[in-house]
Amino acid sequence: MSAQLAAATTLSAGTSTGEAVQFWILGTVAVIGALCTVFMRKAVHSALCLAGTMIVLAVFYLANGAYFLGIVQIVVYTGAIMMLFLFVVMLVGVTAADSLKETIKGQRWLALLSGLGFGILLIAGIGNASVSEFTGLAQANANGNVEGIASLIFTKYVFAFEITGALLITAAVGAMVLTHRERTERARTQRELSEQRIRDGKHLPPLPAPGVYARHNAVDIAGLLPDGTPSELTVSKTLRERGQIRDVSMEALGDLKALEQRAEERLERKAVGPAGSGRSDSTRSEEASK
């Protein structure tokens, strides 16, 4: 106990006031962010708290001289992975319809035991740490911080690095398998989807646009309904309140009647033409026989 107290006294003597204030403030923020990540009910809030914790860890790395790790922590973890996770959660989301019940029995107890085991390992690692001086720091950073990290990753910790990569690949494949759904029913056509939307009444089609049968494109002319009456809802609310809506429905109906009349006349001509030609042919045949 006295040895640990002496080591703590030596560490406090070698630490400046600014470093101590920075440690306690940022450490408190990091712990609060980690706890909020676990206990927040919404996944988006948990992701934001985890991103804040990662930023605080990056500040710790930068303060301890590990500039490369600090930048990687911000760019890769906070800027890429966490933002991607946040966007996926916001786009896909966890709604109230999703089941939050345990799919694996006893998984909470397994998680508790795993957390307890990791806590014991963490306490053991902290107990073996040197609190008076940095052991091996000069040797690790002899050729630079980046080269030192690369040398440790691909020499001493190469198996742990490869296993971590395999776990990440397995997690990605597992996420794809869990989210993949086989479609057994026939895909509905665009017509069927449109009829379903109209039948349910949730997504009604839009009203006619301003203008009448492509004869007018002014914004103050209301569109015509199927019965020929104008729909003022197709005109801007401002123009409706001003009373600046032009009614051309009578003109359009007159044009429509004229078009129908011309069509009827054309049909009558086609009907009379073959009949007249038939009578002339019969008359000619009778005259030829006589």
From TrEMBL:
Localisation per UniProt entry: Cell membrane
Transcription in keyword set: no
GO molecular function: NADH dehydrogenase (ubiquinone) activity; oxidoreductase activity; quinone binding
EC primary class: translocase
One Pfam family, short name: Oxidored_q3
Residues that span the membrane, as ranges: 20-40, 47-68, 74-97, 109-127, 157-178
InterPro entries documented for this protein: NADH_UbQ/plastoQ_OxRdtase_su6 (IPR001457), Nuo/plastoQ_OxRdtase_6_NuoJ (IPR042106)
Keyword annotations of the record: Cell membrane, Membrane, NAD, Oxidoreductase, Quinone, Transmembrane, Transmembrane helix
UniProt-listed PANTHER family: NADH-QUINONE OXIDOREDUCTASE SUBUNIT J, NADH-UBIQUINONE OXIDOREDUCTASE CHAIN 6
The protein's name in its UniProt record: NADH-quinone oxidoreductase subunit J
Protein family membership: Belongs to the complex I subunit 6 family.
Region (Disordered): 184-207, 265-290
Gene Ontology CC terms, in alphabetical order: plasma membrane
Organism ancestry: Bacteria, Bacillati, Actinomycetota, Actinomycetes, Kitasatosporales
Catalytic activity, reaction form: a quinone + NADH + 5 H(+)(in) = a quinol + NAD(+) + 4 H(+)(out)
Principal location listed in the UniProt entry: membrane
Biased composition (Basic and acidic residues): 184-203, 281-290
Domain of life: Bacteria
Organism expressing this protein natively: Streptomyces tendae
Membrane disposition: Multi-pass membrane protein
EC number from the UniProt entry: 7.1.1.-
Role according to the record: NDH-1 shuttles electrons from NADH, via FMN and iron-sulfur (Fe-S) centers, to quinones in the respiratory chain. Couples the redox reaction to proton translocation (for every two electrons transferred, four hydrogen ions are translocated across the cytoplasmic membrane), and thus conserves the redox energy in a proton gradient.
